[in-house]
Amino acid sequence: MTTIFLRRLCLGAIFAATLSACSQAASGTIRSTVHASLASGERTLSGQFFGYNLDSGTFKAWRTDKGLLSQTASMAAGTLRYPGGSVANYWNWA
Prior knowledge:
By secondary structure, the protein is mainly α. 45% of the residues lie in helices and 6% in strands.
């Protein structure tokens, strides 16, 4: 794993946390602080870290295609994220 990748990963985490904190601070509900450091060196990510997003907003075949479940299992993904991508931001969890 390269240092550039770790830096991008760290910056991405800081950016996401900052956006989250800003949107929540605007509503006056939560304050947060993020600390990130590259000083700890490199480490290996678990295979569970990588996977696929399941786009529930436009991809309807997973509900109607019986063979899709077995095909999805054959991908041997570490993670399947549902709902995937920005759909999760607007999902009705109720």
